[in-house]
Amino acid sequence: MAAVSPTDIWVTGKFFQYDSLGIPDAKPIGNVAHWNGKEWTYHGFNSSGYESWYEMDDAFATSADNLWVCGGSPFQWNGATWTTHGYDGFYFGSGIIETWASSDARYVCVVGLDRSCAYYRKDDPQFRKVIIPYKEDCLDVTGTEDGTMYVAAGSNTHDNYNGHIYRITPDRSAEVYYIASTMDPFTIWIENDEVRFTNASRIYRLIEVEGRVESRFVYEADLHILEEDHDSENNIFLMLQRGNFLHWNGSTWKQISIPYQGEFWGHDLDVNGRDVYFVGFGTGQYCVIAHGRQI
Question: Is 188 left (phi over 0), alpha (psi -120 to 50) or beta?
Fold first, then answer.
């Protein structure tokens, strides 16, 4: 999901209306939902132009005029028009599961399963494939404003069960930045100019020591870590299993549980100042979209 403001929220998925008996319609009403502060509207995206709304997996925004919704292809909103971006010479078979864009939309990287990774530069109209050295799933991506990207990869690795952190430069070349021995890096972000990543319930930071990259243990949560988002280095939220969150205020980690009636499985979150927005599934696979405010 991407929450630009309380009146500009985008959620991706595959949305159905239910009849009076609680049975969903056979055809979805869209794969992107938008909240304008008063009501939800539903929109359909398909790069082929057909009204066949496949599931969309990710939304990312840095502002109201730099929004990306992604599934099989990346779709960009620049504040005035939508652009459908294509790929050069390959098919993003797994679907895009994570996106990162610079604040000026000059650099964008999208990742997915089975070493799927593509990189966009504003001076080039196409997303172009990035060659990931090992056969593994690319599970998350983050970056810096100069176009350097970092990708967390693992899960399906063919390198002696080692996961990897890859560094990708604007020339679209990838190098192994860190070998995560017997780990599955799952989420990744940058804090205090250092790369942070999670493996299961643990947080690690990467530091450069005499020309090599080493990891340092930071914190262990009670539950597995699913997603991360932040708007500053003193306001970091991690989504945990079963409707729990972990918050970093610059000095301490604190675990928070949401007051939701019933089971909740988190899927994504977005942090915007004191406001935290998250989406997931409740009992019966109903979509749950919620908003919390720090006090």
Answer: beta
